[in-house]
Write a structure and sequence with these properties.
Layout lengths: L4 E6 L13 H12 L6 E5 L2 E7 L3 E5 L8 H14 L5 E9 L7 E5 L8 H9 L10 E7 L8 H9 L4 H31 L1
Parallel strand pairs: 1-4, 1-5, 5-7
Antiparallel strand pairs: 2-3, 3-4, 6-7
Enzyme class: hydrolase
Organism: Purpureocillium takamizusanense
Family: Belongs to the PTH family.
């Protein structure tokens, strides 16, 4: 009997200190616990860091507690801890992160091997954790759109992603986006089951 489990990790800068669009993954994950009817987030130690975790029978939701650009070592340690407790063949890793190329709140399932497009959090995770070592485990990304400023220069983009979120933006990320994140997780599971059964 195939019993899939998901480790879903959001990337961002630590909340509540950095309440910016760059932490869109954290906002979406906090709303996702409610959508999935999971326990509220509580602080536990995982990957040798204190972090916010919501554990359900199928989904373990984890907010990465590190700064975005150095997320990789933490994600790798948490994955390895879970892979020791659960057969990796029934465990999937999903990274939830912000995406400049999509409008605010638009959610997309993204292939693991797709280019990070300059996203330093994704680059850090890929550098620290190789999917090649876990060929039976589906690794995927869920991108949460944050829109982008008119100007494309690095300084303008940096100011945009690091500015404090407005209450409207936060509502879109915490209340609307999580419904779509849950749908993408269902899609991912359906694809995975088809491969296992096929």
């Amino acid at each position: 009997m195939f019993n899939p489990r998901f480790l879903v990790v959001s990337l961002g800068n630590p909340l509540p200190k950095y309440e910016s669009l760059h932490s869109a993954g954290h906002f979406a994950l906090s709303g996702l616990a409610k959508v999935l009817r999971q326990p509220a987030f509580s602080e536990v130690t995982l990957g040798s860091h204190k972090c916010l975790v919501s554990r359900g029978p199928k989904y373990t939701l984890v907010q990465s507690p590190t700064l975005m650009n150095v997320s990789g070592p933490f994600v790798a340690r948490v994955w390895q801890e879970m892979a020791r407790q659960t057969d990796p063949a029934s465990l999937s890793l999903v990274i939830v992160h912000d995406e400049l190329e999509k409008d605010l709140g638009v959610v997309r399932l993204t292939a693991w091997d797709r280019s990070p497009r300059g996203h330093n959090g994704i680059k850090s995770v890929k550098k620290s954790l190789s999917q090649d070592k876990y060929p039976q485990s589906p690794f995927a990304r869920i991108a949460v759109g944050i829109g982008r400023p008119e100007a494309r220069d690095a300084e303008t983009v940096s100011k945009y992603v690091l500015a404090k979120v407005s209450s409207d933006q936060r509502t879109a990320l915490e209340e609307s986006a999580p419904l779509d994140v849950a749908r993408r997780l269902v899609e991912l599971e359906a694809e995975w089951r088809a491969q296992v059964d096929g």
